[in-house]
């Protein structure tokens, strides 16, 4: 049961994390025209809210507690352990590998965005409120669902039970 719950929660949490990342990337492209990661040095100082949302979503994708990505990965791992089947134990290694690969990709972007020297010559500021609000709602959801895990599970447990019933 916990494996199915983890899968459903992971789908929900993953959609929030990826949506926040894509919206943040879209805001950066919209405001700056920058499409290359190598040109994003110092952008955290110019677009602080956008990069904060990006950072929260990226850390959650890595599985850092207490964010939503950690909760869903933890529940998937517990579901795999619950089965006791060796084939499902491999999934735990894949979850860990996924977190490491996400860290390898996202940590340099975050470091460069906040600590790199700004290389972009154009003047810009953060994204407009119409773009920031949806990103901020998603980032808040990532934090809230990570801390208050019962919110996610109270909604999906009935769905998981319904899927398991004959």
Describe the protein's architecture and organization.
- By secondary structure, the protein is mainly alpha-helical.
- The chain has one domain.
- It contains seven helices and no strands.
- It has helices at residues 2-32, 43-46, 48-62, 68-83, 86-115, 129-147, 149-164.
- It is elongated.
Distance between the termini: 14 Å
Following the backbone from N to C, one meets helices and strands in this order, namely HHHHHHH
The averaged pLDDT comes out at 90
Total count of strands: 0
Helix percentage: over 70%
Uncertain runs: none
Estimate the strand proportion: under 5%
With helices defined by DSSP (H or I, 4 residues minimum), what is the helix count? 7
Overall tally of structural domains: 1
Give the biggest sheet: none
Overall 3D form: elongated
Integer-rounded radius of gyration? 18 Å
Broad structural category: mainly alpha
Put the structure in a nutshell.
By secondary structure, this protein is mostly helical. 79% of the residues lie in helices and 0% in strands. It has 7 helices and no strands.
Topology (elements, then pairings):
Layout: H1 2-32, H2 43-46, H3 48-62, H4 68-83, H5 86-115, H6 129-147, H7 149-164
Which features does this protein show?
79% helix, elongated, mainly alpha, 166 residues, 0% strand
């Amino acid at each position: 049961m916990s494996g199915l719950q983890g899968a459903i929660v992971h789908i929900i949490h993953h959609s929030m994390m990826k949506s926040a990342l894509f919206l943040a990337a879209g805001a950066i492209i919209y405001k700056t025209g920058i499409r290359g990661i190598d040109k994003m040095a110092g952008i955290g100082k110019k677009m602080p809210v956008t990069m904060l949302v990006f950072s929260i979503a990226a850390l959650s994708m890595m599985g850092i507690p207490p964010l939503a990505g950690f909760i869903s990965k933890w529940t998937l791992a517990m579901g795999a352990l619950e089965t006791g089947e060796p084939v499902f134990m491999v999934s735990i290694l894949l979850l860990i590998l996924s977190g490491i690969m996400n860290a390898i990709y996202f940590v340099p972007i975050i470091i460069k965005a906040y600590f790199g020297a700004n290389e972009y010559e154009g003047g810009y500021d953060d994204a407009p409120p119409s773009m920031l609000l949806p990103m901020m709602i998603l980032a808040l959801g990532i934090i809230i669902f990570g801390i208050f895990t019962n919110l996610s599970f109270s909604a999906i447990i009935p769905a998981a039970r319904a899927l398991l019933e004959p």
